[in-house]
Amino acid sequence: MTEVVVILSVVIILLAMLASSSIRVLREYERGVVFRLGRLIDLKGPGLVLLIPAIDRMERVSLRTVTLRIPVQEVITRDNVPAKVTAVTYFRVIDADRAIVEVEDFLAATSQIAQTTLRSILGKADLDALLSERERLNEDLQKVIDQQTEPWGVKVTTVEIKDVEIPTNMQRAIARQAEAERERRAKVINAEAEFQASAKLAEAADVISRNPTTLQLRYLQTLGEMGGDNNSTIVFPLPLDLVRPFLTTPTANGQDESRPAEPSQLEARPDVDPMRAMARPEPVAHPLRN
């Protein structure tokens, strides 16, 4: 009786082991690639999968998007600038059968392809393109890597360049270049502003030249604007047309007082220095003054 119980126990244990080895449960995002006596059969999953013990062998494949970080790659750009670049690749398996049959380890193979492609593509670009045209470079990397991984049933969806590290001396050179570019733009803008201002001033001069009264009105307007501020001293030009009548005073014989003496008059007065008389005429008594 004891021997029968032992035999039954052994049989039950063997059946449990066979059952556990023949029953698989696949999640929604998993697929099972089943080999029966070494031959590939239909794809299994998701859900419950029954296998023949010791005959069938199953490989699980995840269909979710995989985030693959590309290690730091030292590249030399087309203009001979060394740089260290890190990137990240997003891919997923779209054909589980080919991902298992066509390549031994599709994850490692995709990583190596991404690294070599990154060095190849970035080595053909200039440093300026590497810093400012990342979207175009990302698209080129994605297309090239996807073309090489397509026979494996792997679809590369996105490749993003994360960081670009360049030498310190090159960073200083780029900073100087950017500063010089900003100064150039400032000078160009200033020159364009001066050109436009000169054109407007020329138009204003044409308008004022048609009516001289406009200049006087503008002069008075400027004085009014200056008088509105709390200025202790105001220096303003005075037109000669306004002060000319006050500078000349008629004499008794009709000659202006401020007019220099004629040479004939200087000869008639030998006691007067001719140079001094020409420089500063002597005042003449006005008939109306005491």
Automatic annotation (TrEMBL):
Q: Write the record's keywords in alphabetical order, separated by commas.
A: Membrane, Transmembrane, Transmembrane helix
Q: Which residue ranges does the record assign to the Band domain?
A: 21-178
Gene3D superfamilies xrefs: 6.10.250.2090, Band 7 domain (3.30.479.30)
**TM annotation in the entry:** 6-26
Write down the InterPro entries for this protein, in alphabetical order.
Band-7_stomatin-like, Band_7, Band_7/SPFH_dom_sf, Stomatin_HflK_fam
Top-level taxon of the source organism: Bacteria
Renumbered to this chain, region (Disordered) spans 247-290
Instruction: Give a yes or no for keyword Membrane in this entry.
Output: yes
Family affiliation: Belongs to the band 7/mec-2 family.
Name assigned to this protein: Slipin family protein
Q: Which organism is it from?
A: Rhodococcus tibetensis
Q: What is the lineage of its organism?
A: Bacteria, Bacillati, Actinomycetota, Actinomycetes, Mycobacteriales
